[in-house]
Design a protein that fits this description.
0% strand, globular, mainly alpha
């Protein structure tokens, strides 16, 4: 799908090995600490949401899986915030283990670059918008409008990208770089993280295969662009469009994914990724060192 460019930046997937304090076991410590902190943050969020919405209302909102994900304010807020909490968890873990800076999980160009992220958002937004319009013209609306409030529709513009960025740090950052530092074969690390990414999504087999391919696409983008921004942008648009299509009653969200929906999702994601990489490479988006440290 991609042809690796040779440039001045270290390979992103194996980047962890380049640090002076690198030892094979230090990434394991970072993983343990970051996930322990994530569970602590999630427990705190559960306590807060149970207090606000009531224990039973909160449990009913979040226990239905994907089929009830967008059915209430509580389920929307908690589902996205509980994953976004990985960002502070990884930051704190990287400071405690102290083997490498947090910014090194963002890219091997010097850190996270918001300019790249926002530039890369534009391309999949156009692709997904075109697909959505064509799909609606052919099939019409497939669902019913959700019950979330208008404020959730606005806040989700921030929450969903944060959740997607957190997942990129978790799978394409921490896990993929950990495997890459051990096996030193980037493509194998890309495949391993995609397998884990797919297994943690409770879809049917077709849905799991779809997520597996998405994980491969996100991983390849991170590898080829030496950072998380491009994959995070594509991931953000995918989840944002999916959310608004469902809550506006234009489509449905279910753990049982159809073959047609799977093929459509894969096609749109692959086209978006190829366009991001081609245009970004031509424009030199991924060639500049990030000023963030």
């Amino acid at each position: 799908m991609f042809e690796k460019d040779t440039n001045k930046f270290p390979d992103y997937v194996t980047f962890g090995r380049t640090f002076e304090k690198y030892r094979w076991y230090r990434p394991i410590l970072t993983i343990i600490v970051s996930f322990v902190l994530l569970f602590v943050f999630q427990f705190i969020l559960m306590a807060i949401f149970s207090t606000i919405y009531g224990p039973m209302n909160f449990l009913n909102a979040v226990m239905g899986g994907y089929d009830t994900l967008n059915s209430s304010d509580a389920s929307v807020y908690f589902s996205y915030l509980s994953i976004a909490a990985f960002l502070p968890a990884l930051y704190i873990a990287s400071r405690l283990v102290h083997d490498r800076p947090f910014s090194s999980y963002s890219s091997s160009r010097g850190g996270w670059d918001w300019k790249i992220y926002f530039k890369c958002l534009i391309i999949p937004l156009i692709v997904y918008a075109v697909y959505t319009v064509v799909d609606l013209a052919i099939h019409g609306p497939k669902g019913h409008a959700g019950q979330v409030s208008q404020i959730v529709l606005v806040v989700s513009v921030i929450l969903i990208p944060l959740q997607c960025i957190a997942e990129e740090y978790m799978f394409r950052g921490l896990l993929m770089q950990t495997f890459g530092s051990w096996i030193k074969i980037p493509i194998l690390a890309v495949i391993v993280q995609a397998l884990i990414f797919a297994m943690l999504h409770p879809y049917n087999i077709i849905g799991v295969i779809t997520i597996l391919i998405s994980g491969l696409v996100f991983g390849l983008l991170a590898w080829q662009t030496n950072g998380l921004e491009a994959g995070a942008a594509l991931h953000s648009v995918n989840n944002l469009m999916g959310f608004y299509v469902v809550v506006l009653g234009l489509g449905t969200l279910s753990s049982a994914v159809s073959v047609f929906d799977s093929l459509a999702d894969i096609l749109v994601a692959v086209i978006s990724a190829l366009l991001i990489y081609y245009i970004g490479s031509k424009k030199g988006w991924f060639d500049q060192k990030t000023s963030e440290s």
